[in-house]
What does this fold into?
Amino acid sequence: MKTRVAPSEVLEAKIAELLSEGIGDSDRLAQVGRLGAQLVLQKGIEEEVAAFLQRVRYQRTAEARGSRNGNRAKRLMSAEGEHELQVPQLRNTAARFISRVIPDMGMAIRT
It folds into this structure.
């Protein structure tokens, strides 16, 4: 059975694994930097969605304003390189969710 894990938790595990092996060269340090930047953006998106839905992942409340329905990949270019973020897809919401962290412009975003 496949365990469902938040994308930010996957990134945290990758960073922890790299750090546990030690940073021996500049390539590994750059990789940790890229993953760290990606983690900050991913956490921001996940927190935005939780605030929009008025609940965290798998929490059931009467105040909930919709539900998550998987993720879709969104590419982003930054000074640290290209990142692929997982943007939650939402359903049964009264309003359309528009991320303030990663605007939906239908293209790769460059910062």
